[in-house]
Amino acid sequence: PAPASGSPADNAGQGSRDETILSWAFRSLGKGYSLIFLSLSFALVALFVMNLVTARRENVLPAQLTTRFEGLLNEKKYQEAYDLAKGNESFLGRILTAGLSKLSLASYSQAIEAMQEVGEDENMVMEHRLSYMALIGTISPMIGLFGTVHGMIASFQVIATSTTAPKPAELAQGISTALFTTLVGLFIAIPAIAAYNILRNRVARLVLEVGIVSEGLLGRFQNQEARRTPPDAGPAAAGLQAPPSGGPRQREHANRDRSRTKNRGSAGGSPVSSRRERVTRRRCQAVAVPRVAKGL
Questions:
Q1: What's the pTM?
Q2: What is the per-residue pLDDT across 135-146, written as a single tens digit (0 to 9) for each?
């Protein structure tokens, strides 16, 4: 008789050979690891797109805002320049708004401090958004390592609890879980870390350019403040000494005290040397008195 075809063993082998790698990976990972890695993947893609849009030059340092703002300052239309910067939601717009609002009430140095505070806040917000990508890049390999240990424990459990020689398929289930969790964890972590470093360098460069451009636009107010002379500074602002107040007698006493001070200073004597001179003079007088008395 002809051998029977399509035995159960042959069908099982044919079914295992027809299984794709993707279905094998999902079966090895299970529902728990599959949901975790899918969630991390979707979160990574969303964060990458959001940070990429945020780090665009048009959203951080728009060239149109810089040109129009500088033109309004050249025309001395400060209120229009303030309204233009306030209506712009970019990084540069917020910094220029803070600087102009302080210039109307305080000095140029305080305006620079306000701009620096706003710049640090905006930079911190952008870095916080990027830090979540670095967090995913750090967590994914750790989950893969956890799955590796979990799969190896499952394989050794089969060996420990089996009364006979375990089947290779039973051991392969735990080993495949260990390997696939490590593979998927690294597959998520490597792009996450690479994208984080690229976007962080881009953000740092744009923040530096924003600081240079903003200080360059508002630097003209520093020159105006340096040329401005305070109306109530008086002679002291120019390094002159104010004349003594009061009547003629008070002026005469003040001039006499000033001349005495000048004569003392021109003599070049310090308090220590003048004290020594007085002590020497007293000793000479003490020696001279007995001599005079002896002569008498």
A1: 0.64
A2: 999 999 999 999
